[in-house]
Amino acid sequence: MLKVEGAEQIVKDEMLRSPQIQxxxxxxxxxxxxxxxxKYTDSQGKNIKDIIITKEDLK
Length: 59
Fold this sequence. Notes:
Layout (H helix, E strand, L loop, with lengths): L6 H10 L2 H10 L6 E7 L5 E8 L5
Antiparallel strand pairs: 1-2
């Protein structure tokens, strides 16, 4: 499903609506964390897609 055109942006938008993402950034900001990288893999461990969320995406 993540290989379909536009799917990455839909997933990213849904993740940005999650209060947990905002909480992660607020708790790790002092450590210098600016990006969250979600790595999606198949059952064999092969990378399917990386979705990067930046602090700026929350704004």
